[in-house]
Amino acid sequence: MKVLPEKTIERLSEYRRTILRCLDRGKTHIFSHELAEMQNLTAVQVRRDIMFIGYASQSRKGYDIKDLAKAIGKVIDPKEQLNMAVVGYGNLGKALCAYLLNRRPMLKLVAAFDIDPKKIGSTVTGIQCYSIERLREIISTYDISIAILTVPAAAAQEMAKALVASGIKGILNFTATNINVPHDVYLEELNIITSVEKVAYFIKHKKKV
Q1: Which tens digits make up the pLDDT trace of 129-188?
Q2: Is 98 found in the same domain as 179?
Q3: 87 and 51 in one domain?
Q4: Helix (H, G, I), strand (E, B) or coil at 39
Q5: Residues 68-91 pLDDT 10s
Q6: Residue 109, in any domain of the structure
Q7: What domain range includes position 144?
């Protein structure tokens, strides 16, 4: 299968998360229009995405949730386990460690990093915090591919360079500044302030209607 568009991967991930919640509530099948309503999409978009991954089994009861979740997993999950690290062990970093631990079997959080001596050696839910000075060593030892960056904005670019030099292949940037990485390193940038401002903008314009 060819590389899918980023937005398609995002939607497939959301579909799986949504249908697994439905499965936990005892629901075994779901129609495309039900899933579309939960995702604020059209049923046509949902069916197109699901057909795009080669899954077309929809009985009179709708999609089999277990089968659909497996089909999505075969497309978006890595074939081998990928190890992750959180870089920046402040409040956000610790919260992400707690949230991400054991969320996906093929994506394993194995380490955290910081420069604060008081944080180095501490653990949150079993994840140990290492000194930034040991970055290359720990990344190599644990074969870490993905870094989640939560350092202060002023240190973000320098830290990104250090991560790339240490062998990181993908960075999820939670800092308040954009960073630059080589073309062969995948970068996802999430800015909470931008998202909040987007929500506020549309609330403002809705009030005018």
Answers
A1: 999 999 999 999 999 999 999 999 999 999 999 999 999 999 999 998 999 999 999 999
A2: yes
A3: no
A4: helix
A5: 999 999 999 998 999 999 999 999
A6: yes
A7: 82-193
